[in-house]
Amino acid sequence: MPSLCVVGMQWGDEGKGKLIDYLAAQADVVVRYAGGSNAGHTVVVNGEKTVLHLLPSGILHEQCLCVVGNGVVVDPGELLEEIALVESRGATVGDNLLISDRAQVVMPYHKVLDKVLEEAKGAGKLGTTLRGIGPCYADKASRTGIRMIELVRPDAFKARLEATLPAVNRLLEQVYGHEALSLDDILAEYGGHGERLRRFVGDSVTALHRAFAAGKKVLFEGAQGSMLDIDFGTYPFLTSSNASVCGVPAGTGVPPRLVGSVLGVVKAYTTRVGAGPFPTELHGDLGDRLREDGGEFGATTGRPRRCGWLDAVALRYALAINGTDRLAITKLDVLDGQPTLKVCTAYRHGKRVYDTFPSDLAVLEGCEPQYEELAGWQRDTSKAQHIEDLPAVTLAYLNRIEELLGVPIGIVSVGNERRQTILVEGDGLFR
């Protein structure tokens, strides 16, 4: 029953999409377990870039069954656009796509609520993507959501919408001064989406258990990053789902004992999108240079990412909650031009030094990172095909990461292309 979970160890944007696409060549099933269209996974093959938001990143591999798990919130319109996009690139989307009938649907009013709620926060904005993700998960928790099984059954969809929309419209009109949404318009638009998506919707839980019973290789695809996890991230500046490996059982119906091993994806430096504490953030020219060299602009929103040095304190915490077995270091090539590098090994706040990640935002926002300085290599690493091709100084940086984090490196990525991937260990990732 071999399986592997690929999950981000930072604040998202670690390059998970590329790695999942790369590893999908070895997999039979790729299953997305959390998040929604707020996640942007970028895959580059032979110079052609494909940005995926809802489709699992194994969709470019014909042999893979791609599953959108019950933990995902599905925007049907965006999903249909994505299907059309990958089909235009020559990929087949048919029996290789299964959308959980238990997955929640992102409705038009979720997007409106996302916008008015964010605007109402004023200076305290969270920096959400305004894709309706938080309000959809809120409806799921309050048991007022609409699932894919209802979306694809017109009578059930109409009944659920008639029960839900009046209360939403009262909130929009009386609290936020927003015009009411039309039930007929939503029925017409989303009814059409349901008709087109019906053939993909089914019992993903049973399908996954059958895959395990047949000895298939299953790849679990994380979205966002562990420091944005609703329970373990920098609350409230985070996403609305369990972005860590903790989301796999609830988001797929697969029990924890079947999650074989965990590959933690770590960018060679650190980035963050939106508001929230970021201890190692760099301001000025150096941060700007990292952003430009790394193309650090959101795949979903285009927003510039905040950039900083690698943070071993936050990483040790993320690795612990995920039970991480191996590391994948990405965007190593972005550091090629840096004469010196820094890694944060502790935080200082007042007289106290933290080597573990605090939950107190006041500490995080006021802490002073304690850095260890390492030599840069100032050589092009993007053409390296084997770990031995990397400069000795680069290997020293990677070795120091392993020492600080206590987890071995299994993959090194030196560019956006699928082929720019160095497999340090030839096997053993799937367990």
Model description:
The strands form 5 sheets. A 10-stranded mixed β-sheet has the order 9-7-5-2-10-1-11-15-19-20, sandwiched between helices. Strands 14, 16, 17 and 18 form a 4-stranded mixed β-sheet that branches. Strands 3-4 form a two-stranded antiparallel sheet. Helix 3 (108-120) crosses helix 4 and helix 6 (154-174) crosses helix 7. A hairpin with a 2-residue loop joins strand 16 and strand 17 (352-354). The chain has 3 domains: 3-101 and 200-261, 3-Layer(aba) Sandwich (Adenylosuccinate Synthetase, Chain A, domain 1), CATH 3.40.440.10; 104-197, Adenylosuccinate Synthetase, subunit A, domain 2, CATH 1.10.300; 266-423, Adenylosuccinate Synthetase, subunit A, domain 3 (Adenylosuccinate Synthetase, Chain A, domain 3, Alpha-Beta Complex), CATH 3.90.170. The mean pLDDT is 94. It is an alpha/beta fold and 431 residues long. 32% of the residues lie in helices and 20% in strands. The protein is built from 13 helices and 20 strands.
Write the layout of secondary structure elements.
Elements (H helix, E strand, L loop, with lengths): L2 E6 L7 H8 L5 E4 L8 E5 L2 E5 L12 E4 L4 E2 L1 H13 L8 E4 L3 E2 L2 H13 L12 H9 L6 H4 L2 H21 L8 H15 L3 E2 L1 H10 L4 E4 L25 H6 L8 E7 L2 E3 L12 H10 L11 E3 L1 E2 H11 L3 E5 L9 E10 L2 E3 L6 H6 L1 E8 L16 H14 L3 E5 L7 E3 L8
Parallel strand pairs: 1-10, 1-11, 2-5, 2-10, 5-7, 6-8, 7-9, 11-15, 14-16, 15-19
Antiparallel strand pairs: 3-4, 12-13, 16-17, 16-18, 19-20
Helix pairs in contact: 3-4, 6-7
